[in-house]
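REVIEWER CHECKLIST
Item 1: Sequence provided? yes
Item 2: Single chain? yes
Item 3: Sequence as submitted:
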Amino acid sequence: MDAVVGALVAQQAELAAMLGGLPEARWHLPTRCPGWDVADVVIHLAQTDAMAVDSATGQFAAVTADPFADTDRPASIDAGAALMVERERGLPGTELVERWSNGADRLVEVLDGMDLSTRVTWVAGELSARTLATTRLAETWIHTGDVAGALSIEVAPTDRQYHIARLAWRTLPYAFASAGRTMTGPVAFRLLSPGGEQWNFIPEEPAVTTISGTAAELCQVAARRADPSATSLRGEGPDAGAVLALVRTYAL
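Item 4: Structure as written out by the authors:
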C-alpha cells in the first residue's frame, strides 16, 4: 500500500475510534467549525469521501454536474459544502457512522487499486490520484481534530502530518495566486516532526523565504485551526508573513 493511502487508513481509524458507540446526545455537541456539530462534520466527510470515489473512478463530472440545480448556486466552495450538509441533517448517529465508515473503506479500496499517478478531476481542476489521497488525509485529519475538540479528547500529532505539511508547501503558489499575490521567490519549510526528526521541504531553486518550526503547528495553521501568531513558527525572507497568512491544504 502506498504510504499516503496507508496514512489515510490510520487517520480514518483514529476517527472511527472516537465515533464508535458515541451516545446520540454527543453527536450534537458543537465543534470549532462555525455552525456545525459532530454529526455535521461526519456528514461532510461522508459526502466528500463519496465525491473522491467518484473522482478516482472517473465519474466526478457526471455525478456532480449540477448538484445545486434546484437552488441558487452557492457563492463559494465552503458555502456549497454547508448547503450539502444542511440537506442531510437529522440522520441518527448510528446511521451516520456506518455511512461514513463504508464510504471511507470504499475510498481506500479504490485508491489502493489504482495507479496513483493517474490524473483525475476534482473540485478545482485536475490533480493526481496521489494528491487526491493526500487531500483526503488532510481533511480527515482536520475534522478528526474538530470532533476530538467537541468530545474533549486529546489528539497527539503523528508522522502522518508529513504528507499534510508537504501538501501545504507544494500548493503555496496556488495559495498566493488565489489571494491575488505574487511570490517573491521559492519557499523552503524546515520543520521538526512529532518524533523529533527534521522534515525539510526544499525547492529546486534557492529559497528566498524559509519557514521554521514544528510540523504540528504548521499543519494547524494550514488547516486554519491556529493563528500563526499563536505558534512558535518563524519565517525569514520577503514572503515570510504572507506564507504564514496564506498557507492552506489546497487540493491541487
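Item 5: Key structural point noted by reviewer: The chain has two domains: 3-150, 161-246.
Item 6: Recommendation: ____
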